[in-house]
Amino acid sequence: MKVLGERRTLRKLRYLISVFNAFAARVGKTSLIMSLVSEEFPEEVPPRAEEITIPADVTPERVPTHIVDYSGKDYTIPLFRWIPLINERTDKDSRLPLILVGNKSDLVEYSSMETILPIMNQYTEIETCVECSAKNLKNISELFYYAQKAVLHPTGPLYCPEEKEMKPACIKALTRIFRISDQDNDGTLNDAELNFFQRICFNTPLAPQALEDVKNVVRKNLSDGVADNGLTLKGFLFLHTLFIQRGRHETTWTVLRRFGYDDDLELTPEYLFPPLKIPPDCTTELNHHAYLFLQSIFDKHDLDRDCALSPDELKDLFKVFPYMPWGPDVNNTVCTNERGWITYQGFLSQWTLTTYLDVQRCLEYLGYLGYSILAEQESQASAITVTRDKKIDLQKKQTQRNVFRCNVVGMKGCGKSGVLQALLGRNLIRQRQIRAEHKSYYAINTVYVYGQEKYLLLHDVSDSEFLTDAETICDAVCLVYDVSNPKSFEYCARIFKQHFMDSRIPCLVVAAKSDLHEVRQEYSISPAEFCKKHKMPPPQAFTCNTVDVPSKDIFVKLTTMAMYPHARLRCMCACNRCTFCICQNFLNSDLLQSVKNKLFTAVLNRLRPYIDELGAMLLADEESSIMQQVHAVNSVEDSIFMESSLGPRLLEDRHVTQADLKSSTFWLRASFGATVFAVLGFAMYKALLKQR
């Protein structure tokens, strides 16, 4: 960006100086160049000076300047005809600024400014006028400084001298800057916001007295320029108009360029689309800092604090955009409240979706919101996390990603849209309120898997006979068929065999519309047998025809399968190949059951004499105690059993004692059995690994 800017500046400065020297002979243009270079007046002046480049480090604006002398014909054209002639040779879109220089001021004792001012007022292309003397070295450096300044900080794009006000493009750009800087969205810039603005634009804060002086100037000239001790939009625009009128164009240009604007007051591609390298098989996500920034943007515009953005609030949020980026389909892509307004979770979900599907557009949108300025980052690329290659996740059997894509496949009318809307918590009644032209083929929401919040992105792919390569790129596949349509499952089976049977993408079959009568599918085998044959989980019954929010079980399962494609869910697995199935088969094997039974019998027989002896001792003690109190018991037996229920308590005491004994025996057996089982299990596991 800096290199391009310097090249553009070189071209403009080169043309500027050439034009400046083009239409007059023997006025001292060559002497001016030579006096600048040698810092002394040349006694002998050549017909034409050589081209020179002034290095950036010796110029006030820190840009290189290329100076070209022009030796043309001897034009005898009056001054008031120079400008139209120059304009005829200038591209209308380039808007090259001009400066008028009155040389040889050492030969006269008066100023020619009074003669020049009417010409400057007539031709707005003239940025400034300066009198100088190559012989006395008067204003030589200033001349070329003004030339640089006229190129770097031109007045033309900002201000209309005839109307004595800023041009619409400049007002539009400064209005966007004001809205971005108004971080609490109260319509004014308070002292903290003004100081932040000053610091990010000029690298220095304003002293409290300086802030008051600025506001006093605005108050003096504009009745509604200051409100609640804060600078209003009108006051902000007035200040920049004042800067331009007083010749301090660089102040306004510094602000504009800090917020990404070029010489034509358009946001530069370098600002909107910073470089971001994304290797193959990697995805893009927003990082923690980006979510915090978006949270602040949401809070800034949620004026009624209902955790949802009304249409007016959403429109106000996007006023810093040159166009409305979200259409009505977004309301059917993310979560909304009962009134159809995008909620806080839906707001973040839509940004997550944009980042995943089109990261360049996300960078553009963050640029419009001023992310790099408000977050004080080099560019909005710092808001993006590029995930590692999916192959590495499979090798390490773990992932650091937070967004997972699931393609929803099924024939037309099978209930795919219902699955998408169910992810957003909408039952069939709410789904019927969606207009056909506002239908969305995406849905995204958060799902909790093992206590972790993840984003599940559902994509309703086409129902054509074949899927494109792009439609097969995903983390999981949801094959949807209608239980009431006998021809529905055949499409899912065909698509699975064509695209996913030999892939490592986990698939889940969903039996949609399970509230309807289930019919036999016109396929060679049933959906359950098909899933078992291809080592998939059994079909999952699903319906969105519910009174409340539809069940989210299938979404948790899909997200879990996408997170752990190398493993299988415990409640679904029947592959007989994964670690879980091997361990289950080993635990249920006849050999292990036989060893377990023999060990249990041996331990029990070993401990039985001790158990019997201990039981006999406890029983004898209890019987002796009862015999000693038999008369007392007999005399009050009825009252005891009727009033205090002592009899059951005695039986309970006896029962507790025996239970404690059995519990101790059980834990002894369990500890010993667990130890033996662990040793045998580890040995068997090592043997299986060695065989594989």
From TrEMBL:
It is found in: Mitochondrion outer membrane. GO terms for cellular component: mitochondrial outer membrane. Keywords: Calcium, GTP-binding, Hydrolase, Membrane, Metal-binding, Mitochondrion, Mitochondrion outer membrane, Nucleotide-binding, Repeat, Transmembrane, Transmembrane helix. This is Ras homolog family member T1. Residues 289-324 form the EF-hand domain. Signal peptide: none annotated. The lineage of its organism: Eukaryota, Metazoa, Chordata, Craniata, Vertebrata. PROSITE patterns: EF_HAND_1 (PS00018), EF_HAND_2 (PS50222), MIRO (PS51423). InterPro entries: EF-hand-dom_pair (IPR011992), EF_Hand_1_Ca_BS (IPR018247), EF_hand_assoc_1 (IPR013566), EF_hand_assoc_2 (IPR013567), EF_hand_dom (IPR002048), Miro-EF-hand_domain (IPR052266), MIRO_dom (IPR020860), P-loop_NTPase (IPR027417). One of its GO terms (molecular function) is GTPase activity. It comes from Athene cunicularia (Burrowing owl).
